[in-house]
Amino acid sequence: MADLFIHGMGHFHPENTIDNAFLEELDIGTDDRWILERVGIRERRTVLPLDYIRQTRNGDPRQAREAAVYDNAATSVRASGLALQRAGVGREQIGLVIAGGCYPDTAIPAEASRIAAALEIDAPGIDLNSACSTFGAQLHFLSSMSGLPPFVLVVNPENTTRAIDYADRRTAVLWGDGTSATIVSAREPGPLKVVETTLAADSARWEAVRIPRFGHFWQDGNAVQRFAIKTTASSAEALLPGARERAAATGGRVRFIGHQANLLMLEGVARRLGLEEDAHWYNVDRFGNTGAAGAPTVLSQCWDDMEEGDSLILVVVGAGLTWSAMRIDAGDGP
Fold it and tell me: Dmax over Cα atoms in the chain, in whole Å?
């Protein structure tokens, strides 16, 4: 694979908060203890007004688009602003915008085109979607491409609460909204380097997770959880020897970020990997499952915590069923 550097990352979560007490008030058969014992989530953010959820339980996702405080372009502008600031890169330097996630606003044009226009970026916009594994798929493809412009903006807008049935406790407790943005370059060295990526799928099981057009999110919960645990652990274990070897040579540490769907699952994987508690980075307890934005928003929130010599293992899984993993190194060590 070609060198791919990360120059800056940004994130945005909308202001409206769905805590466990709010979900209990909806009288859908759940409470704080039930939620924490199953998924470890305390709060989530949503682009929907809370009164709209109370009154409608989001029975018709088409109405949610009208009710939402932000659309995907608006949250992308906010996340991208932070990424550009951290990277020290101007909008005029972006030569390509790539977007993707679980729930785009339009079939056409590409969501990336709308985001580029909202940011006043004069560059092509294309979408690369692979549900919750989108961020991994995007960097996997970018690392294999030639002829890229000096800087590429990668955006994962995830405002999927608009597709959630708030009369169904199985999914209502899971989802939150968030958007990540990443400035990458295959030409200019940056503080983080993507040194290895993988992408794989079990496409025969595509029906296990889906959002029908104009419909609600649905998944085969038990099967998907078993899949996520198995693939996350095996993908991370495959990258662990190289990460540990580099950390030993540089004096850095091995960090881990998984798909932000279930805190209990992630903690189990981190223990299996033999990682110290503070080496496992996550935000699912405060923001819920934010789809493709989950893992990259964690890295953005921990941007200042990556130290010279550290190696990060990042694993994402999603509908398709598709999964991706990568190793990201900080600094110029071996």
Answer: 58
Cα separation, 69 vs 75, in Å, equals 10
Residues 6+ away with beta carbon under 8 Å from 171: 164, 165, 216, 217, 218, 219
Contact 108, 100 (CB under 8 A): no
Parallel, antiparallel or unpaired: strands 254-257 and 311-318: parallel
Please write the tens of the pLDDT for every residue from 63-95: 999 999 999 999 999 999 999 999 999 999 999
Question: For residues 8 and 85, is the Cβ–Cβ distance under 8 A?
Answer: yes
Interatomic CA distance for residues 32 and 35, integer angstroms: 5
- Tracing tokens 């955006």 back to the chain, one arrives at 155
Locus of tokens 């294999």: 144
Contact of 21 with 202, CB cutoff 8 Å: no
- What's the whole-model pTM score? 0.96
The residue written with tokens 């549900």 in the block is 131
